[in-house]
Amino acid sequence: MSHYLRPKIPGATIFFTVNLADRRSSLLVNQINVLRDAVRKTKSERPFHIDAWVVLPNHMHTVWTLPEGDSDYSVRWSIIKARFSIQIEAGRKRQSHISRREKAIWQRRFWEHHIRDREELNAYIQYCYINPVKHGYTETPEDWPYSSINR
Fold this sequence. Notes:
5 helices; 4 strands; globular
């Protein structure tokens, strides 16, 4: 099995993509309140700033800025995923899910990119907001109810 080395930069701003295991599912928008609660509780215990967030039916994109001196985004994602999963019925399990005692809801990993400058930050925030339009869910970013664009 591969071992991924993720950067550990305290106070970093990071873009993430997190996917469901079943990419045909609409679980994230169907259970949006469960997801919001998991994020809210985790954020209260392990603070981070949400620069942008969009939730689509089967994946989500977000940009976070971590507190100064803190680089532990992986633990935050682990807690958010676990809190969400506890409230949700298990998906279709393969043997690897059973042996790891997983519910087969999430893809095991997530994609992250550490943002280097203001131009890149703006580009990733725009990427979050345009994503529902790109996937054909809405005509304008502002019409998508599962986005931080209107907050």
